[in-house]
């Protein structure tokens, strides 16, 4: 599956794309062999439409592209979604979460009130 709206990261691009971003960033820490990651991946892609221009969506393959970053953020289980705001972790979701749960966490970081 091609994910057009989710930017792939690596250890070298992480700082500029995530920590220096002007808008919140959600990073999907994943690996191709991880079955729960395959469940979360299309959910993350689907959410890009709802949050276009308000949240940057990225993914980091913990084995091939970002082992140092994964170690730095103590990623011990995947999938892990880290939501960054102003260069700091604002929230995290570990495991395969439903779309509504991820959206609610993004809304909270964005300061969107729940009705």
UniProtKB/TrEMBL annotation:
GO biological process terms on file: cell redox homeostasis
Protein name stated in the entry: Thioredoxin
Residues in the signal sequence: none
Native species: candidate division WOR-3 bacterium JGI_Cruoil_03_44_89
Active site positions, chain numbering: 34, 37
Site (Deprotonates C-terminal active site Cys): 28
Stretches of the chain forming a coiled coil according to its record: none
GO cellular component, one term: cytosol
UniProt-annotated site: Contributes to redox potential value, residues: 35-36
One Pfam family this sequence matches: Thioredoxin
Gene name for this UniProt entry: trxA
Family (UniProt): Belongs to the thioredoxin family.
Record key words, sorted: Disulfide bond, Electron transport, Redox-active center, Transport
GO MF term set: protein-disulfide reductase activity
InterPro entries assigned to the protein according to its UniProt record, in alphabetical order: Thioredoxin (IPR005746), Thioredoxin-like_sf (IPR036249), Thioredoxin_domain (IPR013766)
Domain Thioredoxin: start-end pairs: 3-111
Disulphide linkage map: 34-37
